[in-house]
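Subject: design request, 185 residues
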Protein backbone atom coordinates (compact mmCIF):
# COMPACT_ATOMS: atom_id res chain seq x y z
CA UNK A 1 0.00 0.00 0.00
CA UNK A 2 2.45 2.60 -1.22
CA UNK A 3 -0.15 5.00 -2.56
CA UNK A 4 -0.26 8.21 -0.46
CA UNK A 5 -4.02 8.52 -0.94
CA UNK A 6 -4.52 5.08 0.59
CA UNK A 7 -2.09 5.85 3.38
CA UNK A 8 -3.97 9.04 4.25
CA UNK A 9 -7.33 7.25 4.20
CA UNK A 10 -6.00 4.47 6.42
CA UNK A 11 -4.50 6.98 8.85
CA UNK A 12 -7.77 8.92 9.09
CA UNK A 13 -9.74 5.72 9.67
CA UNK A 14 -7.33 4.60 12.38
CA UNK A 15 -7.64 8.00 14.05
CA UNK A 16 -11.42 7.60 14.10
CA UNK A 17 -11.05 4.20 15.76
CA UNK A 18 -8.57 5.53 18.34
CA UNK A 19 -10.81 8.49 19.09
CA UNK A 20 -13.77 6.17 19.63
CA UNK A 21 -11.72 4.03 22.03
CA UNK A 22 -10.73 7.12 24.03
CA UNK A 23 -14.28 8.44 24.13
CA UNK A 24 -15.79 5.12 25.15
CA UNK A 25 -13.09 4.65 27.76
CA UNK A 26 -14.38 7.72 29.55
CA UNK A 27 -17.95 6.48 29.65
CA UNK A 28 -18.77 5.08 33.06
CA UNK A 29 -20.03 1.52 32.79
CA UNK A 30 -20.57 0.62 36.43
CA UNK A 31 -17.01 -0.64 36.83
CA UNK A 32 -13.89 1.12 37.95
CA UNK A 33 -11.70 2.13 35.04
CA UNK A 34 -8.63 4.34 35.26
CA UNK A 35 -9.61 6.11 32.04
CA UNK A 36 -12.47 7.76 33.95
CA UNK A 37 -9.95 10.20 35.39
CA UNK A 38 -7.66 10.54 32.34
CA UNK A 39 -8.91 14.01 31.52
CA UNK A 40 -8.62 15.29 35.10
CA UNK A 41 -5.99 17.98 35.54
CA UNK A 42 -4.85 19.10 38.97
CA UNK A 43 -3.48 22.51 39.84
CA UNK A 44 -0.20 21.41 41.37
CA UNK A 45 2.27 24.09 42.44
CA UNK A 46 0.61 26.59 40.12
CA UNK A 47 0.64 24.41 37.00
CA UNK A 48 -2.14 22.26 35.58
CA UNK A 49 -0.85 18.69 35.75
CA UNK A 50 -2.55 15.48 34.61
CA UNK A 51 -3.72 13.43 37.58
CA UNK A 52 -1.85 10.32 36.48
CA UNK A 53 1.45 12.24 36.74
CA UNK A 54 1.03 13.16 40.40
CA UNK A 55 -0.78 10.09 41.74
CA UNK A 56 -0.97 6.34 41.35
CA UNK A 57 -4.37 5.19 40.13
CA UNK A 58 -5.30 1.64 41.07
CA UNK A 59 -8.41 -0.52 41.09
CA UNK A 60 -8.49 -2.57 44.30
CA UNK A 61 -12.09 -3.72 43.74
CA UNK A 62 -14.41 -3.91 40.74
CA UNK A 63 -16.21 -0.68 41.61
CA UNK A 64 -13.50 1.26 43.46
CA UNK A 65 -10.85 3.53 42.00
CA UNK A 66 -8.04 4.32 44.44
CA UNK A 67 -5.95 7.44 43.90
CA UNK A 68 -2.73 7.59 45.92
CA UNK A 69 -0.82 10.85 45.50
CA UNK A 70 2.96 10.68 45.32
CA UNK A 71 3.01 13.88 47.39
CA UNK A 72 0.53 13.80 50.29
CA UNK A 73 0.34 17.60 50.13
CA UNK A 74 -1.45 17.32 46.81
CA UNK A 75 -4.34 15.32 48.27
CA UNK A 76 -6.68 18.29 48.68
CA UNK A 77 -5.78 19.66 45.25
CA UNK A 78 -6.59 16.29 43.70
CA UNK A 79 -9.89 16.11 45.56
CA UNK A 80 -10.79 19.62 44.39
CA UNK A 81 -9.89 18.74 40.79
CA UNK A 82 -12.06 15.62 40.94
CA UNK A 83 -15.02 17.68 42.15
CA UNK A 84 -14.58 20.26 39.40
CA UNK A 85 -13.94 17.65 36.67
CA UNK A 86 -17.61 16.66 36.83
CA UNK A 87 -17.04 12.94 36.41
CA UNK A 88 -20.25 12.17 38.25
CA UNK A 89 -18.60 10.52 41.24
CA UNK A 90 -17.88 12.13 44.59
CA UNK A 91 -14.37 11.51 45.88
CA UNK A 92 -13.90 10.18 49.41
CA UNK A 93 -10.73 11.53 51.04
CA UNK A 94 -9.47 9.50 54.00
CA UNK A 95 -6.35 11.58 54.63
CA UNK A 96 -3.86 9.52 52.65
CA UNK A 97 -5.77 8.30 49.59
CA UNK A 98 -8.87 9.23 47.63
CA UNK A 99 -11.46 6.61 46.83
CA UNK A 100 -13.93 6.89 43.99
CA UNK A 101 -16.73 4.39 44.48
CA UNK A 102 -18.55 3.79 41.21
CA UNK A 103 -22.29 3.51 41.88
CA UNK A 104 -24.26 0.60 40.48
CA UNK A 105 -26.09 1.59 37.29
CA UNK A 106 -29.85 1.32 37.01
CA UNK A 107 -31.41 -0.46 34.05
CA UNK A 108 -32.65 2.82 32.64
CA UNK A 109 -29.23 4.45 32.93
CA UNK A 110 -27.63 1.43 31.25
CA UNK A 111 -29.95 1.91 28.26
CA UNK A 112 -29.08 5.61 28.07
CA UNK A 113 -25.37 4.85 28.15
CA UNK A 114 -25.77 2.13 25.51
CA UNK A 115 -27.50 4.69 23.26
CA UNK A 116 -24.65 7.11 23.87
CA UNK A 117 -22.18 4.39 22.87
CA UNK A 118 -24.15 3.81 19.68
CA UNK A 119 -24.09 7.53 18.87
CA UNK A 120 -20.33 7.71 19.40
CA UNK A 121 -19.83 4.66 17.18
CA UNK A 122 -21.95 6.25 14.47
CA UNK A 123 -19.88 9.44 14.66
CA UNK A 124 -16.74 7.36 14.19
CA UNK A 125 -18.32 5.66 11.18
CA UNK A 126 -19.11 9.07 9.70
CA UNK A 127 -15.43 9.99 10.00
CA UNK A 128 -14.52 6.72 8.25
CA UNK A 129 -17.02 7.37 5.46
CA UNK A 130 -15.67 10.90 5.05
CA UNK A 131 -12.13 9.51 4.78
CA UNK A 132 -13.40 7.08 2.15
CA UNK A 133 -15.11 9.86 0.20
CA UNK A 134 -12.00 12.05 0.32
CA UNK A 135 -9.84 9.16 -0.87
CA UNK A 136 -12.22 8.37 -3.73
CA UNK A 137 -12.30 12.04 -4.77
CA UNK A 138 -8.51 12.21 -4.70
CA UNK A 139 -8.27 9.03 -6.77
CA UNK A 140 -10.61 10.49 -9.39
CA UNK A 141 -8.58 13.69 -9.49
CA UNK A 142 -5.37 11.69 -9.89
CA UNK A 143 -6.91 9.71 -12.72
CA UNK A 144 -8.11 12.87 -14.48
CA UNK A 145 -4.64 14.34 -14.14
CA UNK A 146 -3.26 11.13 -15.69
CA UNK A 147 -1.25 10.35 -12.56
CA UNK A 148 -2.79 6.88 -12.39
CA UNK A 149 -4.44 4.69 -15.00
CA UNK A 150 -8.10 3.72 -14.97
CA UNK A 151 -7.21 0.17 -13.96
CA UNK A 152 -5.05 1.43 -11.10
CA UNK A 153 -7.89 3.69 -10.00
CA UNK A 154 -10.33 0.77 -9.86
CA UNK A 155 -7.83 -1.32 -7.89
CA UNK A 156 -7.20 1.54 -5.48
CA UNK A 157 -10.93 2.21 -5.11
CA UNK A 158 -11.38 -1.43 -4.17
CA UNK A 159 -8.59 -1.15 -1.60
CA UNK A 160 -10.17 2.00 -0.15
CA UNK A 161 -13.49 0.18 0.12
CA UNK A 162 -11.77 -2.74 1.86
CA UNK A 163 -10.15 -0.33 4.32
CA UNK A 164 -13.55 1.22 4.95
CA UNK A 165 -15.19 -2.15 5.55
CA UNK A 166 -12.39 -3.18 7.90
CA UNK A 167 -12.58 0.08 9.88
CA UNK A 168 -16.36 -0.19 10.14
CA UNK A 169 -16.09 -3.75 11.46
CA UNK A 170 -13.55 -2.64 14.07
CA UNK A 171 -15.81 0.22 15.17
CA UNK A 172 -18.78 -2.15 15.43
CA UNK A 173 -16.71 -4.57 17.52
CA UNK A 174 -15.52 -1.80 19.86
CA UNK A 175 -19.08 -0.57 20.24
CA UNK A 176 -20.48 -4.05 20.91
CA UNK A 177 -17.80 -4.73 23.52
CA UNK A 178 -18.61 -1.50 25.36
CA UNK A 179 -22.36 -2.14 25.18
CA UNK A 180 -21.78 -5.63 26.55
CA UNK A 181 -19.67 -4.18 29.38
CA UNK A 182 -22.46 -1.73 30.17
CA UNK A 183 -25.32 -4.21 30.10
CA UNK A 184 -23.46 -6.79 32.18
CA UNK A 185 -22.44 -4.17 34.71
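Subject: RE: design request

Done. Sequence follows.
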Amino acid sequence: MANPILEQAKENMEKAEASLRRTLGQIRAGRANASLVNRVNVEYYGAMTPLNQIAAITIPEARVLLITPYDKGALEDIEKALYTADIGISPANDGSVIRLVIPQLTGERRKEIAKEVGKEAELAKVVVRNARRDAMDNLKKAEKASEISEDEMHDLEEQVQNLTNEATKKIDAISKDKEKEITEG
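Residues 34-101 form a domain with the Gyrase A; domain 2 fold (CATH 3.30.1360.40).
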